[in-house]
Every structure is written in C-alpha cells, then in structure tokens.
Amino acid sequence: MKKTTLICLLIIFTALAAFIIAACEKNHDFGSWKMNTDSTCTEEGEEIRTCRSCGETETRAIPPYGHDEIWIIDREATCTKNGEKHKECKVCGEILATEVIKGDHNYMIEERREPMGSTDGYIRYTCDRCGDSYDDILAASPAPVSVWNGTDEVKPTSLVRIDDIYYYEINSAAELAYLHNETEINNYSLNCDIVLNDKKLYYNEEGELVPNASSLNHWTGFICNRFRGNGYKISGLYSTKSGLIYEAKGDITDLTVENAYINIQLKKGDRDYVGGICNSLGGSYYALGSVNCKKAEYCSFSGAIICSCDDTVFIDGDRSMEFSSDINLGGLFGYVGSMETIISHCECYGLIKAINLNYNNHGCDIGGIVYDCQNINNCVNYATIKSETEGFFGCGGILANSMGEVNNCTNYGEIIGQVVGGICGMNNGHSKCLNSVNYGNITATSVCGGIAGRNYGKIADSDNYGDVTGTTNVGGVCGENRSSITSSNNHAQVKGETNVGGVIGKHEFMKDGAEVSACGFVVTDDINDGLYGIGNMSSNEECTILHE
User: Is the same domain home to 269 and 285?
Assistant: First the structure.
C-alpha cells in the first residue's frame, strides 16, 4: 500500500513539474535583475535574474561605463615655450591623449601714435603676460625740407594759435637761424624739416669729427619759451657753443635732432650745462624755476656730444684759477630748472664724451637723456657714454642725478666712467627708480651698479642684464646702497676688486625703514661663481641665487 502511494505521489509531482515547466516555457515569472559582474570603463559587465517559478536564469550585458575624462596640465605654456597636457580617466587612470599647448604672446594695443610731420607714427602692441612689445609703423607723408646756406637769417612773422597759445611759425631754415638774434622770448612751432649742413657728420670711435669743420655751417643756440617740433626733424647741426636751443623756459615737444655734432671746449674755470636739444630746460642755472615748463616729450637726439677743457686757457684771463672746468651733460637736455617738468618718451643715439674736466672733484656728470630731473619716464638711451674725468654724481644711462622718480626707462648704451649706474649715477634721497632695465655693459674706475652707482632713495622692480666691471663697491644692481632695494635682479656678470656683490657691492643702512628684499642674481660656473649677494657683508640675506 505504501509503495503504491509513493509511486502515485511521484507521478503527481512529475506531472505537476512538467505542467509548470510547460507553462514557464511560455511565460517565466522572473524576479528583478541583479548585478553579477560589474562593468569597467572599457569592458562589459553582466546582470542576472531568476524565474520564481522554475528557477531558470537569464543574463544580459551591462555596457562599459566609458572613461570619465579630465585634462591635466603637465607643463604650462609661456609666451616663448610650448607646454604639455594629457587627458586621463579619473576612474581607471588610463592616459587617453596628449597634446601640445602652444606658447604664444597675447598682444594687446597699448599705445597708438599718429604720424606727425616727417616722423612716423606707430601702433604699439604689448603682451599682457610677459610685457614683450612690437610696433606697427604708420608711415608719415613726405615733409617739406628747407636747407640752410649758413648765412641767411629771416625774422619769423607768421603767427598761429594752438591751444590758446600763440606761436611764431618756422617755415624755413633761415627763419630758424634768425632766432639767436631775437631779443624777445617767444613760442615757436616748426613746420618743415630743416637741414643745417647737407653732409653726413661722421665721427670715429673717439668722437673726432671726420669732415673738415671749416667747411661746415656753425650753429648758435637761441633762447625761447615753448618750442613745438610737430614731428619734424632738424639735421646736420654743428656747434661749438651749445645744443640746438641754449635755453627754453617752456615745453619742448615732438622734436628730432639728428646727424648732429656738438664739440665744446671750455676754458679753465668755465661752468656750464649742455644738452643736444637744449642746454637749460625750464630756466637757467642762475635763474631757476620757470612755471611754463611742464613737459619735454617725444623728442630724439642722434649724433655726438664732445666736451673738453683746455687747461692752458683761463676764463677771463684769470690765471689764478686752480681748478679745471665743470660741465654737466645730457644727451637731450642739460639742466632742468623746474621741479614740475616731466620728461617722457625721449630717445638718444650716438656718443656722449667728456675729456679733462674737473672742478674740485666735481668735474663732469653725464646722463644719456638728461643731467638731472625730478620726473622722467618711458625714455630709452642707446648712446655710448664715456667720461674720462671725475664727477660727483657720475654717469647714468638715463640721468646722472635722480632727484625724483624714474619710471619705465631702459638703457642699451655702453657706459664708461668713474661712478656709473646703468639707469642713474646717483639715486638721491626720496628718489625712486622703478620698473627700469639696463642692458648696456658698465665699466668704472670706482663705484658702479647695474641700475645705480649709489642709492640713497628706493630701487624697485628693476633688472640689470649688462656686465658690470669696477674696482671697489661693485654690484649687479647697485654699487653703494644706503636705502631700499626691492624686487630687483641682476642677470649678468659682476667683477671688481673689493666689496663685489651679485646685487649690492657695499651696503649700509642710513635711513629708517630701509630694506633689501626679494632680490636675486645669477650664478653659474662661469658667472659670479663664489659671489655673495651683498659684497661687504659676505651675505646672501634677501638675495636669491637665480638659475637661468
């Protein structure tokens, strides 16, 4: 009986199972999908589900997730060098791509100056990342030219009103030549290019004039109030007395003097100031402070200025003089008599040289643009400066004696003298030398620095790229420092005998609150090996060694 019952149950179960299976083949009762194998960024995963009735399973593929991409900068691009970046997956870390980041300047228009007279204009583009710049030239139209015969002089009579100021118009070389006779102090406006000598005034490396000077038209400087160059040029100036203008009490603007040769020989005991464009700007040394002279801008001088002293000839025949001559030179301007005068956007090319000048150890100081000034900016000197005599302030690529603020100025010219600075010979107390660069090589018989020979004020954000060679107190940025120097670097070689430093030769604080900070100098196996940043202190405090 039991055996029969078991057989019957088995038959029932088998039939039931067959019925269920037959039914599931048509419609499984699957549960939810469950993860069996997870997918990756590149490979499929798998899901599975099970029939609740029969237990049969079913699978399906899970698509790859795909990469979660991100770009990573490996090396930033600069204006002159390419950078690199790569793309990788944030999940698996696989490198998916690499690309070069092109290095390039981002030029923006900084300044536009329209053509004026015979002077080309320009559009200046400056990179807002590195400061590199270039100019697109805007060509000037051909200008009228007047050639002087060396004798004709005609009084100017035509008046023009500009900005509520009346000017006598200079329409010919003869009218310009008349001005040294003028007893009234007037304003003048130049309306043409003027040629004072129609031959090239060649000079050799020593500054000696190659043509015979006897065949040249000699120029005599004049006195005026304001002088507008209007972009015109005066060429072929030859003088043994002064620059183009002896004294200007007012502004000088937009004037070019080129192919000039100024050779002044002083008597023993003479004192004077000489500038290629103007000897005294804003008043003479003996009558200070013209309120009319607010600016001297967009002026250029090219040629030679040579000054010397004949010790055998005495001033006024007084042989009791026991001192030699005293003269101060500027490539464009000699003496600046007004504290309000701002000199800007001026350039000098050629040679400035002083020989045998000495006055109680205050013989001849030379500035590539001006002897001294309260405010000067955006000026460039390309001229070679040579002083074979002693001077108190020394020689500077931009000015000898800084009495205010020098900003954004550059020197490319070689400078040779006793006390020398690439930008200024002396940066006086309360003066500032800012954002300026020297590229010219410097050689001194005494104190010298890439930016300033002596500093009693402030030097900041200024760099030297010219080799500096002297004897005592020789520094890549400053020879003798008694105040503050910040964020200024030397990138060139420094050589001397005593107190030689990559940044400062001799350093001693003389002012409260003075500091030396964030300065640096280059050291390689060939350049400045063994030098300290501050020479007399044998210290690199606040002076970082630069690796370039």
Answer: yes
Answer yes or no: are the C-beta atoms of 261 and 201 closer than 8 Å: yes
Question: Is 20 within the bounds of a domain?
Answer: no
Do 130 and 185 sit in the same domain of this protein? no
Range of lowest pLDDT (76-80, 187-191, 237-241, 316-320): 316-320
Out of 88, 117, 138, pick the residue that ends a domain.
Answer: 138
**Three state DSSP letters for 55-84:** CCEEEEEECCCCCCEEEEEEECCCCCCCEE
Q: What is the pLDDT of residues 398-432, one digit of tens each?
A: 999 998 999 999 999 999 998 999 999 999 888 99
547 phi, psi to nearest 5 deg? -115, 110
The CA dihedral of 178, 183, 187, 191, to the nearest 10 degrees, is -10
Instruction: Flag whether 372 is in a domain.
Output: yes
Residues 468 and 487 in one domain: yes
pLDDT band of 286, cuts 50, 70, 90: very low
pLDDT of residue 116: 92
> How far, in Å, CA of 197 to CA of 60, rounded?
99
What residues make up the domain containing 79?
69-101
- The pTM (predicted TM-score) of the whole model is 0.81
Residues 159 and 116 in one domain: no
CA distance 398 to 390: 18
User: How is residue 397 written in tokens?
Assistant: 């690529």
Residue 214's SS3 state is helix
DSSP 19: H
270 located within any domain: yes
CA distances (Å), origin 527, targets 386, 451, 456, 505, 509: 25, 18, 28, 16, 28
Residues 152 and 131 in one domain: no
Alpha carbons 203 and 217: distance in angstroms, whole number: 17
Beta strands in 298-383 (DSSP E): 300-314, 326-330, 333-336, 342-344, 347-355, 364-367, 370-377, 380-381
Distance CA 400, CA 428 (A): 10
List beta partners, residue 468.
442, 494
Across 221-237, average pLDDT: 96
pLDDT category of residue 277 using cuts at 50, 70 and 90: very high
Residues 117 and 161 in one domain: no
C-alpha dist (Å) from residue 400 to 162, 367, 407, 419? 34, 5, 15, 10
Q: Would you say residue 151 lies in a domain? A: yes
User: Which residues, 6+ apart, have CB-to-CB distance to 89 below 8 Å?
Assistant: 41, 67, 68, 69, 70, 96
Q: How far apart are CA 429 and CA 459, in angstroms?
A: 11
Quick check: 136 and 123 in contact, CB under 8 A? yes
Question: Mean per-residue pLDDT for 452-458?
Answer: 95
Look-up: residue for tokens 């309120």? 291
435 plus 356 within the same structural domain = yes
Report how many helices (DSSP H) and strands (DSSP E) the chain contains, helices first. 2, 57
Query: Do residues 309 and 188 share a domain?
Result: yes
Strand partners, 355: 308, 388
Query: Identity (one letter) of the amino acid at 539?
Result: S
